[in-house]
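Please, does this match?
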Amino acid sequence: MSVKDRLKRLTGEGQPAVSGTARQELISELRRRVDAIMARRAAYPQRTVTPASGRPTTARALDEVITGEEVNTGCGACFFTRSMFRAESYHGNIQVARLAGADMKAAAMLAGRPEIARMDLADAVFLDTETTGLAGGTGTFAFLVGLGWFEGRDFVVCQLFARDFHEEPSMLSLLQDMTAGKRFLVTFNGRAFDVSLLSARYILNRLEDPLAGMPHLDLLFPSRKLAGHRLENCRLVTLENEILGFTRTGDVPGWEIPSRYFDWLRSRDGTLLEDVFLHNRLDIVSMAALVSHFTDIVTRGNELPHCHPGDLLAAARLHLQHGDNRIARAFLEALMGSPDPLVVRDAGRTLSLFFKRQGRWEDAVRIWQDMMVRDPGDLFAAEEMAKWLEHRAYDHLRAIEIVETALSGSGTLSLADRSSLAHRLARLKRKAASAGRRPPE
């Protein structure tokens, strides 16, 4: 059974129609039951509870802990809070005012969506959810939805909270209203989790999904592409520490958040959620900071004094993939002066192949020669020089010398590399012999 069929079965779509009178009686009965449950819950006194953390606490109302208000929609009520990060404030080592200046062409490149280049960063909505489980699926409930956007150079975070399961339709309805004027979406791992989860919840509640079809920049993928080569992992908290210079203090771990919400449902203790709201809010601001950081690398990484050379190399390769040869060449040439020999080697390889594709053989050969001087055992440079000498310069004897020198280091070569060089050497010797030139002994 397909996911769509399962959702239809859960929602009752496609089932035989119920008469108006019977349907009204069923709805009335359900309302009576819900009202009875809510009446009993309202009568419960606040009391000392022991949440899953094992820490006894005195329950406090939500609005005593988190500044917010109840919002009524056509689908009911939910809780809403709004925070402002002023332009002059900092998130880690990045000032909020800088975040609003992200280059949209670079953002479009990172997202793989060219239409974003024609938009403004004020058109973006940053989204993150907190849920009752991390596995996803129709049984997972997003109880807190965080949204962020720019208002001028200030950054605003709004959070929509379903205080109980029955407030989900209201929260989703409010999310529709708040994203109505936005044109593209920014998340962190939202493509695989947040967006698909919300899509399922909209289907279950028979509401229109405002995020469907919206151009999407999922920052997990540029994080892996630009910085994954040097980080232990690409979790958001790791990127905050290593890239943004921001360290969370006393942050609630993600795995604990579902149990915090279930404890809240039992106790109505707002203190259980204070850290959850903060965690969600910081996630959203960090996403805005990462957009600024990554677009800076893509547009002017060679001008940034503290840009990691490996990140700049990754950005150069990204430009090559998108056909922006001018910026890619500028980045790669800047990297040829890097103090890191491995970066110089990889930049040289990439730049030489760029020149080779452009037919700029003199530039490519110069790089291969420099690479062989720095490292006589550089197999890549030796093979490329041998190819050029064989097929372009027709200097078979010099090509034979280079291949034999490379083979002399056979102890460090793989079996496949040694076999390939031996095959090339035999072919070169045949060509030299047919041209009447005796190969060196």
